[in-house]
Specification:
Elements lengths: L8 E3 L2 E3 L2 H9 L4 H8 L4 E2 H7 L5 H13 L3 E6 L6 E6 L1 H4 L2 H20 L1
Antiparallel strand pairs: 1-2, 3-5, 4-5
């Protein structure tokens, strides 16, 4: 009998048991998908994201943006030419590949709400 080890998927120094686990490890959690959803169609400043997500804490938003940036899904552009400092966030090319997935997640959430209200 052949002893084979299951295939592991690696990304940014982390290992995942399957490709679905890798995806959820990168975009999972309460806020990452929300951030990606708001950045799908436009570049936003930190303060604009905060207004769109009033229940997230500043610390959590900062940490989630940093994690998305480390995973190369979001790019952070800092403008230092004149005060006050301006920071904008947008999707990278890799982040843009998630748009169909984020739209599907959003559509599914809308259908759940619609079906619930029909009952």
């Amino acid at each position: 009998m052949e002893n084979s080890t299951p295939k592991m998927y690696a990304f940014n120094g982390k290992k995942y048991p399957c490709c679905a686990s890798l995806t959820m490890g990168i975009i999972g959690g309460k806020w990452k998908t929300v951030i990606l959803f708001y950045l799908m169609n436009e570049t936003l400043r930190y303060s604009e994201l905060r207004k769109l997500m009033p229940t997230v804490t500043e610390r959590t938003l900062s940490l989630q943006l940093k994690a998305l940036e480390e995973d190369k899904l979001v790019k952070r552009k800092v403008y230092t030419s004149k005060p006050p400092l301006k920071v904008e966030y947008s999707l990278t090319d890799l982040g843009k590949t998630l748009i169909p997935l984020i739209k599907a997640i959003s559509d599914w959430g809308n259908s759940v709400v619609e079906n619930q209200s029909e009952k």
